[in-house]
Design goal:
Strand content: 15-25%
Shape: globular
Order of helices and strands: EEEEEEEEHEHEHEHHHH
Number of helices: 7
Largest sheet: 4 strands, antiparallel
Helix content: 25-40%
Structural class: alpha/beta
Oligomer: single chain
Length: 269
């Protein structure tokens, strides 16, 4: 006969059950035995695939207490086959289920580079499609006055421009002052590059490093943080950490909202 062996483990030494968290796409977790940190890109029967900030993929088993979420031990579980429909867009606006994209307006929003455009699309894309606003990037603003003149903004075609590092006395501020059309609005954020507009805590770093003058800023950031000097891959990793407006600095949020309001004003309808 099998003898009964009582569990004499003190209650305070017994493992505490870990909360179960759905492995929804975009959820950032860490696998503690390897230290691999990444966003969920796929969850299948028994496994989850993570992508780190450099675009590297790793597959891990869905084991109890197998991951860390914001420093806490959790058990990842397969998401429901019918996830609930979000009630808010990434920008915080009320979601409009089934809404169709509006025919594009004549007005536009211009941003400096591709990374700026990708970030705006990720957070405000749903809002922009409903409003019919197209975002284009310029690869710099040195020729901004000529670009605005060629666009010829008017009451039915307003133009909003988002400029990096728009601070008093900068080259960018002098360029912005040369744009005088009442139907063009130039606003900017104080950051050297759009990367800095992503909160360091969202990227998993204590702060954005200072890069000495004369160095390429993005490359200098990668060096300072010990990342491979592949700025394209680094940006994809940063962008992958952005899930909503909460991951961005207020100095960028207000400026983009201002541009959207300006371009969609009744004069640009």
């Amino acid at each position: 006969m099998r003898q009964y062996s009582p569990d004499l483990t003190p209650p305070w030494k017994k493992p505490v059950p870990a909360p179960e968290v759905p492995a929804d796409p975009g959820l950032v977790v860490e696998e503690p035995t390897t230290g691999f940190c990444g966003a969920v890109i796929r969850c299948e029967a028994g496994t989850v695939t993570l992508e780190d900030r450099f675009g590297k993929h790793r597959v891990f088993p869905l084991e109890p207490r197998g991951f860390l979420l914001e420093g806490r031990v959790v058990t990842l579980v397969r998401p429901s086959s019918a996830p609930s429909r979000p009630t808010r867009t990434a920008s915080g606006s009320v979601a409009v289920p089934g809404a169709r994209a509006r025919v594009a307006r004549a007005g536009r929003i211009y941003v400096e580079g591709r990374h700026d455009a990708e970030l705006v699309e990720k957070v405000w894309g749903d809002d922009l499609r409903i409003e019919g606003v197209v975002v284009e990037y310029l690869e710099g603003v040195d020729d901004l006055p000529a670009i605005v003149a060629e666009f010829a903004p008017g009451p039915d075609a307003r133009l909003g421009i988002l400029v990096d590092h728009l601070v008093p006395g900068s080259k960018e501020s002098r360029i912005a002052e040369a744009v005088t059309s009442e139907y063009a609005l130039v606003v900017g954020h104080p950051y050297i590059d759009i990367w800095e507009a992503v909160k360091p805590s969202s990227v998993g770093i204590p702060a954005w490093p200072r890069v000495p003058r004369g160095q390429d800023w993005k490359t200098g950031v990668c060096r300072a943080l010990g990342w491979p000097e592949n700025t394209g891959a680094a940006w994809q990793g940063i962008l992958g950490r952005v899930r909503s407006y909460k991951d961005l600095e207020p100095a960028l949020l207000g400026r983009v909202e201002e541009l959207i309001d300006f371009v969609t004003d009744s004069g640009g309808a």
